[in-house]
Design a protein that fits this description.
The complex is a heterodimer of chains A (235) and B (606).
Chain A lengths: L1 E9 L8 H14 L16 E3 L8 E11 L5 H10 L5 E9 L6 H4 E10 L11 H4 L5 E5 L6 E5 L4 E8 L5 E8 L8 H11 L10 E10 L5 E3 L8
Parallel strand pairs in A: 3-10
Antiparallel strand pairs in A: 1-3, 1-4, 2-3, 5-9, 5-10, 6-7, 8-9, 10-11
Helix pairs in contact in A: 1-2
Chain B lengths: L25 E7 L3 H4 L3 H12 L3 E7 L3 H10 L17 E5 L6 H11 L14 E5 L15 E3 L3 H17 L4 H8 L5 E2 L4 E5 L5 E6 L8 E2 L27 E4 L1 E2 L10 H4 L4 E2 L2 H15 L3 E5 L9 H12 L5 E3 L7 H11 L6 E6 L3 H7 L5 H14 L3 E8 L6 H21 L8 E8 L16 H16 L4 E5 L2 H11 L5 H10 L13 H10 L4 H4 L15 E2 L4 H12 L30
Parallel strand pairs in B: 1-2, 1-3, 3-4, 4-5, 9-19, 10-13, 13-14, 15-16, 16-17, 17-18
Antiparallel strand pairs in B: 5-6, 7-8, 11-12
Helix pairs in contact in B: 2-5, 4-16, 5-6, 8-9, 12-13, 13-14, 14-15, 16-17
Classes of the chains: A alpha+beta (235), B alpha/beta (606).
């Protein structure tokens, strides 16, 4: 069995494709491309593939990761080219490597995700300095409890690694957010934006924010954040 | 997100067609009056989309009914209904076509026209509006929608629709008015222009006859016949939805039509005669669709799959192709003879899904009435074998409210379920184990162009009583579950299926009262429909309770389905005498279809 890690971008209308729909689309592309993919053992064998961290519906991405185990060896570049033939506009594989096949997958190595959110402010509003917001003892968001479906408050201060704003020439604000994104604890950037807009009384509709995931990051031994693709042990 | 499942509104799916050079003459918006998830599973769309987009004159784009949240969002933003391919407003198309697959989708047609900003009725529309047309099985009786459509296409669409579009392109290019275009279009076999006729009703509101308003209109509209399935294209490449749809699989239609002659079955009458696609072509299309889609499932479609004359060799080839590629094969409408079992065992292997039987009625007497030629020993023999091969669930489909039905026939339904459970227990040392039986009963809806087109339907109250009776009988049998449908929906289906033009007002009123997505239990508004019927003064009883006397004028008689009325009457009379009619392959039963087209199946198994 061979393992490949393929990076891809998800842009434009493809931001409306959910994680599960994307997984299905990729599996069909694998089949269509005649790639001899590995299957799990068991009663219901499934393809040995993995989209590393789910991206919330509505967000674009510059760098997502797809892991695939194959029975036959392939030229990694050819593998992305084959999959690209079946991709609709807005989805594109662009960087692919063969890596060591471990029992672990990349989802477990991911600890953070970098997002950029771009939005406009009302003409009379200006973007405040974020220090005060970040200096709060606790930063609350509201989310639905998984079991009771009731809204609950949650302190997410520990999930924010970095948050900075940049006002661009056209007046739009570009917010850069390095947020916790691991299998057990993840912060959706939209939730943080809502919390921040509320704190500063900014009249911005969350649906008018264009959110892009820039990359996924892993923590190295010294605790530094390194883009996932730089941590891969390429064969 | 503001709306659920935004992926169903963006288009851009692999294998969808973009004709960007604008070199076509006619833009046709093909509308499915229900959600994307349902409409994208309709095989007819793949067939017509493929054929029309291969023509030079027409560009066919898809439109589905946006769900209620999307409709609200579109209205709020002033966004009109658009086509998925190019996002062109539907009102800017030349032709807007609706497929009529089931009665409970009718109100969605009005929602879609409204959302498109197109006036609902032919009378209100101007030369600037698109031509609004319809087709599909329910187009055989489109009277309840006649006010809304400029033309209705009846019969097989593979040749008729492209020809219709080609002629319309000519009309458009020489600047003919809609009326003059329709005069030309009605010359095509299968084209019905409702506004060229006016139904006459008596004082009791009963249909009397159709009066021609346009002298050149034909006395009766004969449906279109595709004489040979091999002569038209079938899709090698289907659109791959970006979001999950109901049926996500490659589909190959092996043949059209059915020789069994079940008397309740409209499909078995209106899709006559049987037309087979060659084994080579079927194999080719199945494999190409799988290759071009990446689907992991193939479905072989027809009304009675094991009746395909090349079934065995075809299945051998198909299983040979699919087996090691982990592609599963599904065979709806299979008769369980020995070979079918072998096939099922092979394709389902370790992962045996449920086994389905459709005895349709609980006693042999009633099965003879409906001409469903399957016996209890057929069923029990098949179940016996199935248990041996490792199946542990059986699904049974029945109908209630069939003509001449008594409570004894209903008890027969419970008896079959009980006998199957007993058999399972006997095979398993007296233990039930994991074995289960699911019994589904549908309320019988009499359909036009069938031998049961005249019969009265049970009232909702009578259906409810029968449901209770069945529930009580079945409750005591461990391992058997019962499923049934809402009764008033079935009443309405019968009203709309057999309705005349007086129902246009009812449908419009129901829609104004908020009815849409009526086939969705959570959206169905019984009270609104009752109000609409009452306000419009249409006695639903005309269409349900009393039935229609044999020989009386029928609201849909303007259409000639190809099957003669004499045949339908003969079958109706035989049914009352509990006499069966053989499969056409054993003996030609003289249905009259060969007056119009060649029937290749009569007597071939004699």
């Amino acid at each position: 069995m061979n393992r490949y890690v393929l990076r891809f971008t998800k842009k434009g209308n493809m931001r409306f494709i959910s994680h599960l729909d994307l997984a299905r689309l990729f599996k069909r592309a694998v089949r269509k491309g005649g790639i001899n993919v590995g299957f799990s053992n068991g009663y219901n064998p499934h393809e040995l593939v993995n989209i590393v961290q789910p991206l919330s519906l509505g967000y674009e991405s510059e760098s997502e990761y797809y892991e695939i185990d194959t029975i036959d060896p392939y030229d990694p570049q050819k593998l992305s080219a084959t999959l690209n033939e079946a991709m609709p506009e807005g989805l594109k594989f662009f960087d692919s490597v063969q890596t060591e096949r471990t029992s672990d997958n990349l989802s477990n190595k991911t600890s953070c995700a970098l997002y950029e959110a771009v939005f406009g402010l009302k003409s009379d509003a200006c973007m405040p300095d974020l220090t005060q917001f970040l200096d709060q003892e606790r930063i609350f968001i509201t989310k639905k409890d998984k079991k009771t479906k009731k809204p609950v408050e949650k302190d997410i201060k520990a999930f924010i690694n970095e948050l900075s704003a940049d006002v661009r020439e056209d007046g739009a604000v570009a917010l850069s957010m390095m947020l916790r994104c691991a299998s057990n604890e993840t912060l959706n950037p939209g939730k943080l934006l809502q919390s921040m807009f509320k704190y500063y009384n900014l009249d911005v509709n969350i649906e008018d924010c264009r959110v892009t995931r820039i990359d996924l990051f892993s923590e190295d031994a010294q605790g530094r954040l390194v883009p996932l693709h730089e941590t891969l042990r390429v064969l | 997100m503001t709306v659920e499942r935004p992926a169903s509104y963006i288009g851009g799916e692999p294998n969808s067609v973009l004709k960007e050079d604008g070199s076509f003459d006619v833009r046709m918006a093909m509308c499915f009056p229900d959600t994307y998830e349902i409409g994208m599973s309709w095989n007819g769309l793949s067939i017509l989309y493929n054929i029309l987009n291969k023509t030079k004159h027409t560009y066919m784009e898809r439109v589905f009914a946006p769900k209620k949240d999307m409709q609200a969002a579109m209205k709020e933003r002033g966004l009109p209904l658009y086509t998925l391919e190019t996002k062109t407003p539907v009102r800017d198309a030349d032709i807007v076509g609706f497929t009529l697959q089931y009665e409970m989708s009718y109100t969605n047609i009005l929602s879609m026209l409204d959302l498109a900003g197109i006036p609902l009725t032919t009378a209100e529309r101007t030369e600037n509006d698109p031509l609004i047309i319809a087709g599909g099985p329910c187009a055989f009786n489109a009277e309840p929608l006649a006010d809304f459509f400029d033309a209705v296409l009846v019969g097989d669409g593979e040749e008729l629709l492209p020809e219709f579009c080609r002629v319309y392109a000519e009309c458009k290019n020489i600047g003919l008015s809609k009326h003059d275009s329709l005069l030309r279009l009605q010359k095509l076999q299968g084209v019905y222009v409702p506004s060229f006729y006016e139904p006459v009703y008596d004082n009791d509101g009963r249909y009397v006859r159709m009066e021609k308003k346009e002298p050149s209109a034909p006395d009766r509209v004969v449906r279109a016949f595709l004489s040979d399935l091999n002569s038209v294209d079938y899709p090698e490449c289907t659109i791959n939805p970006l979001t999950e749809v109901v049926q996500e699989r490659a589909v190959c239609e092996l043949f059209r039509g059915c020789t069994r002659g079940c008397r309740f079955c409209q499909a078995g009458m209106i899709y006559r005669p049987v037309r087979e696609r060659s084994k080579e072509k079927n194999y080719h299309y199945a494999v190409q669709q799988l290759k071009n889609s990446g689907y992991g499932e193939l479905s072989l479609l027809s009304l009675s799959t094991s009746d395909y004359s090349q079934f065995q060799p075809l299945m051998t080839d198909i299983i040979g192709y699919c087996k090691d590629k982990k592609i599963s094969v599904s065979l709806p409408s299979l008769r369980l003879d020995n070979f079918s079992f072998k096939i099922l065992d092979e394709i389902q292997g370790m992962r045996k899904t449920g086994l389905t039987f459709a005895p349709e009625a609980g006693t042999q007497r009633l099965r003879d009435v409906i001409n469903k030629n399957i016996t209890e020993s057929d069923i029990l023999g098949a179940v016996d074998k199935a248990i041996e091969l490792g199946w542990n669930s059986v699904k049974l489909y029945f109908m209630i409210g069939l003509p001449t039905e008594t409570d004894e026939d209903l008890e027969g339904i419970a008896d079959i379920a009980r006998k199957i459970m007993d058999l399972a227990r006997a095979k398993n040392n007296g233990m039930r184990g994991r074995f289960s039986v699911s019994v589904s009963v549908a309320n019988f809806v009499p359909k036009p162009f069938t031998p049961f087109q005249w019969i009265p339907q049970n009232t909702p109250e009578e259906f409810a009583r029968k449901h209770d009776l069945l529930r009580n009988k079945i409750r005591s049998i461990k391992g058997v579950t019962l499923h049934y449908h809402e009764s008033f929906v079935s009443t309405l289906e019968a009203v709309l299926a057999r309705g005349g033009r007086d129902l246009c007002a009812v449908i419009k009123r129901a829609w104004e009262l908020g009815c849409s997505f009526d086939s969705w239990t959570e959206h169905f508004k019984e009270d609104a429909w009752r109000t609409a019927l009452k306000e419009c003064g249409v006695g639903q009883d005309h269409y349900t309770l009393t039935g229609l006397p044999v020989g009386a004028p029928l609201p849909w008689e303007i259409i000639d389905s190809g099957v003669s009325e004499e045949f339908l009457i003969r079958e109706y009379n035989k049914s009352l005498k509990e006499q069966t009619t053989p499969d056409c392959r054993h003996n030609c039963n003289g249905c009259g279809i060969d007056r119009y087209t060649e029937c290749r199946s009569k007597g071939i198994l004699k």
